[in-house]
Amino acid sequence: MTTLNSLNQQFGIAGHLQFIEVDGGLTFAEINNAHATASIAIQGAHIATFQPKGEEPIIWLSKLAKFVPGKSIRGGVPVCWPWFGPHATDSKLPGHGYARTVMWEVQETKALADGSTFIRFGLIENETTKAQWPHASTVQLEATVGKALKVELITKNTGNTAFQLGEALHTYFHISDVGNMTIRGLEGCEYIDKVGETTRRTQQGGIVIESEVDRVYVNTTADCVIEDKGLKRAIRIAKTGSKSAVVWNPWTEKADKMGDFGPQGHRGMVCVESGNAFDNVVTVQAGETHRLVAVYSSEKL
Ligand code: TA6
Questions:
Q1: What is the pLDDT of residues 11-36, one digit of tens each?
Q2: Count of C-beta atoms within a 10 Å radius of residue 63
Q3: Tell me: the pLDDT tens digits for 288-298?
Q4: CATH fold of the domain at 4-280+290-295
């Protein structure tokens, strides 16, 4: 187990990055540079916060989020890997894979010439993870914290046979109120509507949320833009290596049942996830590296 002191000695960067331990027992990289602040739990390589200097947060984090070993954090950028949603054959395995609730390790940190901060994590495989995922592979997450936040999920097939990968950066975005928001970029896209009986539909116009929404848009590489009239800003979600976009808001009843959104917490967030799921599950050939990249930035409306 790496101690806080050894982490800060090896990877801390004055004026950029330090490691702290929070109540509950998780260790976070706290980033504070000229452009932005961010905090990233080493467990799950889970980006919990991101806020450009002088702006509202881009990323939403529940006020009731728990920071305890083995539990996913409600909000931020949960890493769904190596499958998205329920496991294909074993319902006892964790939804969205195990990556977000197991320990990763810090592999590198850098202060970049433009004042941004770079950090890379690698997932630590163990008998439990190998029992769930019997493929020789590595997965790393790179975050570059600047005026924008760039997140790269890198999967390497280190074995001799191809495997099928489902994945997503399950990102929760901070909005003024779900009633003030429209999501652009998915017009005309086919999506799997998971609310009620699973149905395939086609998106007509921008996405306005007035009840539970749980949709997997397939075969789309487009940027998504969250237009927030309340904050007079837009959040742009640009991506490469991803053909699925997931839009989710649990609405009142589901959020209350989940218990860690807080009262009306769902009104201040929307998930727009960049991934590869359903029709877009990725075949990673032996020896191949697959990169899923998302860049989050804000623009004036
Ligand atoms: O991405 C949307 C979704 O698949 C929803 O169906 C809901 O399960 C959500 O993820 C949150 O899942 P979690 O396991 O983080 O509570």
A1: 999 989 999 999 888 999 999 999 99
A2: 12
A3: 999 999 999 99
A4: Beta-galactosidase; Chain A, domain 5 (2.70.98)
